[in-house]
Amino acid sequence: MKKVLAAVLAIAMTFTLAACSGGGSSTPTTAAPAATTAAAAAAETTAAAPAADSGAKTVGIAMPTKSLERWNRDGDYLKAQFEAAGYQAQLKYSDNDSNQQNNDIQAMIADGVSVLIIAAIDGEALTQTLADAKDAGIPVIAYDRLIMNTDAVSYYVSFDNYTVGVLQGEFVKKTLDLDNAAGPFNIEFTAGDPADNNAGYFFNGAFDTLKPYIDSGKLVVPSGKTTFEQVATPNWSTDTALENMQNTLASYYSDGTVLDIALCSNDSTALGVAQAITSDYAGSNKPIVTGQDGDIANLRNIVDEIQTMTVYKNVSDEAGVTLEVAKALLEGKSPDASLLDSLSADAAYDTSSYDNGTGIIPSYLLVPWTVTKDNLQDLVDTGLYKWDANNQYLESAT
Ligand code: BGC
Hints:
By secondary structure, this protein is an alpha/beta fold. The protein has helices at residues 2-23, 38-42, 69-84, 98-110, 127-135, 161-175, 197-216, 228-231, 238-252, 267-280, 296-303, 315-330, 376-381, and strands at residues 45-46, 58-63, 88-93, 115-118, 140-143, 153-159, 185-190, 219-220, 261-264, 288-289, 309-312, 347-350, 363-366, 369-372, 385-387, 394-396.
């Protein structure tokens, strides 16, 4: 009996502390969330936390897949930060299967969650399910990826997606000194999943930045593949990116043609492309390979000079901004630009860029930045990464 009472008291205290810390107005920028555990990361679906207070509201979090590192981080950070703020959380991963994601979200609607946070697998495939959420009075925040063709989405929280691509293009421009070097340089593009609304923004940001040099002949695309459709990678699959790059190398580079740049939209595709270059590229130069996310395997490749850069997006901050937007919604407010004052992460409030087919979705857009071999310590300084025992590669600190 005593034990039970002690446990109840401990839970109540944890809840009070968590509620207090969640009451502050600032979003943690760098601190690692306390409640992130390997066990939580291992479970495909994490059930709601035991009720610390039967009145606690539950947030439904739908993430695409556990197979890519970043979504594990997003799910963990979101769950931990919402729980620390006194909410319960249901976290579901849907194995990159949009039917399953519809079912998972339907289950959370049936469970009566108070708000839904969704990183869509297929931005076009949730319309009916979200109509049900709307009927049930559940607000929806589109997380990282915009959800199309539904008026049920209240807000969009993401990074400036176009800028991600611009940073990749600018990196190439600067590294090769495109304005002054004679060239020409050979480039190949690898883009993301056509079902992901972000993928076109990333590709366009990079392509628009480099297009003047393609037009002038300083950059040449030996494969001729210059449209998003030609270079898209379904599911952002590493294996598909690997195969595509192997085919490109076999068809256009086996005669000794030099590959200078492999412009990859993100780290999962960069992983496959870098592997193809390592195994199948005959040239002696090291092509520039771009990426996005800062996945551990890619950071390792950056140290080993198999990948050259990644565009980093601090997804702990993304979770923090999402928490603030959700809190405001649950308090019956309509967050606007003034919410930015309460955020410690750098973000912009955007009411013009993201139209999901039913109108503009007000957006909070965080700021991505470039990581190379030379500034890996900046990642450590976020508190989310640490050096390994040999001070050589980065590991996750959370
Ligand atoms: C995210 C990227 C990620 C990609 C694949 C995109 O929607 O914005 O950060 O690399 O999905 O998971």
